[in-house]
Design goal:
Layout lengths: L6 E3 L7 E3 L2 H11 L5 H7 L9 H11 L5 H7 L7 E5 L16 E6 L2 H13 L3 E6 L12 E7 L8 H9 L2 E10 L8 H8 L9 H10 L5 E8 L7 H11 L7 H10 L5 E10 L2
Parallel strand pairs: 3-4, 3-6, 4-5, 6-7
Antiparallel strand pairs: 1-2, 7-9, 8-9
Bound molecules: S-adenosylmethionine.
Length: 282
C-alpha cells in the first residue's frame, strides 16, 4: 500500500508505516467519508452551490442569547468589560453575541457576506462595536486583529486540517480559544433519510472526542466539556426543514412529500449533544 503524506516509517522496521499524527490522519479520513457521492453532486450543480441559510442562523443566534452553557461561561469568565472577541465562521453570531457584555467589540469572520451583515446588525443592536471580515479560515488569519478571546462554533466538522485550523485560532488570542461542536457530525440525524431516499449508508465518525484528540496530539492544552443544548423551537418550521433535507441530500422538490413523511418518523432531536473544547493561550 502506498505511504500517505501524513505517514512515516516507524522505528527500525521500514515495512511498518504509522501515521505521524494518527489522530489528525483519522479526523481527515473520517471527514472525507461524509463527502456527497460524485454522481449526486454532478446532478445537483444546476441547483447552484450549497450555502448556509442566513434566516436559519439568525434565529439560532437569537436563541443563543437565551442559553447559558460552558461555551458562553468559558469565554465570558476571561473577558474584561469592553473586551474583544473574534468569532470565526460567525454566521449570524451565535458564538459571540451572548458575550456582550462583558465583550464590547466583536469581530466576525465568515465566507458569506449575508451572514456578516446579519452578525454586524445584531452586535450593534446589543451596543457592541462590530467589525466584519469576509474571508476563509485559516487562510485569512493574517487579516484579523489581536483579541482577548477567539470563539469558533459549529465550523470544525468542515475543517479536514483541524490542527492547522486550531493553531490559527490561537494566533490572535491573548487569553483563550473556545470551540463548540456537536458530539457527532451535525448531519448524523440525516442518516435514515440517506438510506431511505438514496440507499446510501453514512459514516458514524468522527466525533468531538476525535477533535479533542487532534488538538491534544499537537500539544494544545485542551479541556473537554460535554453538555446538552436545547434547540430553538422556531427553527423547526416544517417547510424550512424540508428544504434543508432536500438541499443536503441533493434532491429536487419532487421528493418533498417523501421527505415530509421521513421528517415525521425521524424528527430532528429537541436537544443537541454538544462539546465545548477550550484552552488558554500564552
Ligand atoms: C454551521 S454555520 C455556524 C454559524 C455560527 N458559528 C453558529 O454557531 O450559529 C457555519 C458558518 O461558518 C462559515 N464557514 C464555514 N467554513 C468557513 C471557513 N473555513 N472560514 C470562514 N467561515 C467559514 C459558513 O459560511 C457559516 O456561516
Amino acid at each position: 500500500m502506498p505511504v500517505q503524506p501524513d505517514e512515516r516509517d516507524a522505528g527500525d522496521d521500514p515495512c511498518v508505516a504509522v501515521p505521524a499524527r494518527p489522530a489528525a490522519a483519522h479526523w481527515s479520513r473520517a471527514l472525507a467519508g461524509w463527502a456527497v457521492p460524485d454522481h449526486l453532486e454532478v446532478a445537483s450543480t444546476a441547483r447552484g452551490p450549497m450555502r448556509f441559510d442566513v434566516a436559519r442562523f439568525a434565529r439560532i443566534a437569537e436563541h443563543a442569547l437565551r442559553i447559558d452553557g460552558p461555551s458562553r461561561q468559558r469565554a465570558s469568565e476571561v473577558l474584561e468589560a469592553g473586551g474583544a472577541v473574534l468569532d470565526v465562521g460567525c454566521g449570524a453570531g451565535a458564538g459571540s453575541l451572548p458575550l456582550v457584555p462583558p465583550a464590547g467589540h466583536l469581530v466576525g469572520l465568515d465566507l458569506q457576506p449575508d451572514m456578516l451583515a446579519a452578525f454586524a446588525a445584531r452586535a450593534r443592536a446589543l451596543g457592541a462595536e462590530a467589525t466584519t471580515i469576509e474571508g476563509r479560515w485559516p487562510d485569512d488569519v493574517g487579516r484579523v486583529p489581536e483579541v482577548d478571546v477567539v470563539v469558533c462554533h459549529h465550523v470544525v466538522y468542515g475543517a479536514p486540517e483541524l490542527a492547522t485550523f486550531a493553531h490559527a485560532l490561537a494566533a490572535p488570542a491573548r487569553r483563550r480559544v473556545v470551540i463548540e461542536l456537536t458530539r457527532r457530525h451535525p448531519l448524523t440525524w440525516l442518516t435514515p433519510f440517506w438510506v431511505a431516499l438514496h440507499g446510501i449508508e453514512r459514516p458514524t465518525e468522527p466525533s468531538s472526542d476525535h477533535a479533542a484528540a487532534v488538538l491534544a496530539e499537537v500539544g494544545l492544552p485542551v479541556v473537554v466539556e460535554h453538555w446538552d443544548k436545547p434547540r430553538p423551537a422556531e427553527v423547526e418550521d416544517s417547510d424550512e426543514q424540508v428544504r434543508f433535507v432536500r438541499d443536503r441530500l441533493r434532491l429536487g422538490p419532487e421528493r418533498d412529500e417523501e421527505i415530509r413523511a421521513l421528517l415525521a418518523a425521524h424528527p430532528q432531536p429537541a436537544h443537541r449533544e454538544v462539546t465545548t473544547l477550550w484552552w488558554d493561550v500564552g
